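WARN no homologs supplied; continuing
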Amino acid sequence: MKRFVLSLCLVSCFLSQSQIKYEFDYALEYDYFQEQESTRNHKVTYYTNSKTNDYFMAVREIDSNNYRVYVRDNKLFTIIIQMPKDDFNKAYVINNNCEGVTKWDGKRYKKSAERYVFKSIKDTLLNKKQLSQYKIETLRKGRGVKDKSAYSYYILDETIEHQMPFFEPPLNYELWVRDKPFLNGIIDEYGAFDKRHGLRKYKLVNVKKVKKVFQIPDNCEQLN
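OK structure emitted
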């Protein structure tokens, strides 16, 4: 198991080190479904900051006692660690001592995004609420595109103006940064299709306001 240090209250750790700090104020819980592998259906909770989508934290259950915690700063790094559920749920501040850190380079996704575009499609009505729909499609259908049938889509509530949308697929994030097809809203459903995996879908089941912080030292060797 990856080693890490928890701060369960407001107690500050590593006072001698400068920290990179990520604050989260919302937890968005989704049901995940994969068409071709029903055994992979599960829940995932995304911790987000409503004022920025430059980073997020995704938490998935490994077993009855542990979580897999994935943190990505779209400009700096990714972190993957395993944490006991009790420790994660009790912690206000999670201090990670450079464990599971990998330097992140989004340039290749920014380059790939040149082949795709966000398209607004007809709004949909769900539980008497009008939701916006957007589709990501390839700009070029010719040579060099491996799966011409592949696409992904977002259904979101843009009336929620206090929440910026977040993106786990890095290509979709870079595409959003370039085009800004929508500025605010909570994603009610995200789906992606390709011939190899079939349809993969995330459906929002719960939104909760939280206070959680994840931080690491700013002198981690992996970031050099």
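The first helix runs from residue 85 to 90.
OK
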